[in-house]
Design goal:
It is a single chain. The chain is of the alpha+beta class. The chain is built from six helices and nine strands. The chain has a six-stranded mixed β-sheet with strand order 1-2-3-4-5-6, with helices on one face. A three-stranded antiparallel β-sheet has the order 7-8-9.
Length: 280
């Protein structure tokens, strides 16, 4: 009798664990779907400028598999494929490939080697195969990794958006947002490179003012330096500014500053992005 009770207790424990995993997986999938829909709206605004510097199409690689003991594993990569008859886009292509290569334990140049050049599908298949074969998260239940890279500005200045999301179980997933700006020769531009040197102090006051107006409810009152964000970049609708949250729960708050508020602070060659767009 006692042995039967033990067997029943052990079976009930396994059933309960399975149900908890199933419920968690359902809620996680719902959250992922909602977030991906939000991404598509946030990262595809109309492009400014009268003539794009290059052509591109968005390509998606989406692979998934099931391990025997732990459930489903998946990798989702959305990235731009560039082409141009007038400019050499190699630097931009290599930058994107390095961002994708970072999925594999920081092996940035994996997709630039002769054997694997630009083969994102094979790259994703290889990672998935290693996860499923070796079942890394043996007691977690699922792995989900996604990377979105989007062109959000394509004119005299290029801006790329990158959002990475991953889930390996536990209390929190992993999520990060990053923007990168390039000049017409595809050299990376740092945030303050777009600001006139003699107007930086006034620009910092603008950042503080907008921080107090837009983010005062999102961050703790004692934020150390409102004039020192992680980065700020130009996008069609204005300037995106990102701050570092004081803790994980704060995330990385963003604010958008409209062009009319910062036009006097940016260098003349970048002002025409917005004047051209306004004349359309």
């Amino acid at each position: 009798m006692i042995s039967r009770i033990k067997i029943f207790s052990k079976a009930l424990k396994h059933i309960t664990s399975g149900l908890l995993f199933l419920v968690g997986a359902v809620f996680f999938c719902i959250a992922c779907n909602l977030t991906e829909k939000k991404d598509k709206n946030e990262t595809n605004p109309p492009l400014a400028g009268t003539k794009p510097l290059f052509e591109f199409t968005d390509r998606i690689v989406n692979v998934s598999g099931i391990a025997k003991t732990t459930g489903e594993f998946s990798i989702y990569i959305s990235y731009p494929v560039f082409s141009s008859d007038s400019v050499d886009v190699t630097k931009l292509i290599e930058h994107v490939m390095k961002q994708i290569g970072d999925r594999d334990a920081g092996d940035f140049d994996y997709l630039l080697t002769k054997e694997n050049k630009y083969d994102v599908q094979a790259f994703a298949d290889g990672i998935l195969d290693s996860w499923v074969t070796f079942e890394e998260p043996a007691f977690i239940g699922s792995i989900y990794d996604s990377l979105f890279i989007k062109v959000v500005l394509n004119t005299d200045l290029i801006t790329l958006y990158k959002r990475h999301k991953g889930f390996w179980g536990g209390a929190h997933g992993d999520e990060s947002i990053e923007y990168t700006m390039f000049d017409r020769d595809f050299h990376i531009i740092k945030s303050y490179d777009i600001i006139l040197p003699n107007r930086r102090d006034r620009f910092k006051k603008l950042l503080e003012k907008e921080f107090n107006r837009q983010l005062k409810d999102d961050l703790r009152k004692g934020y150390p330096d409102k004039s020192n964000p992680v980065f700020f970049v130009l996008v069609p609708d204005g300037m995106i500014v990102q701050y570092m949250g004081e803790c994980y729960a704060d995330g990385n708050p963003l604010m958008l500053i409209k062009p009319e508020k910062f036009m006097d602070f940016i260098k003349p060659q970048y002002r025409k992005i917005y004047t051209q767009n306004a004349r359309k």
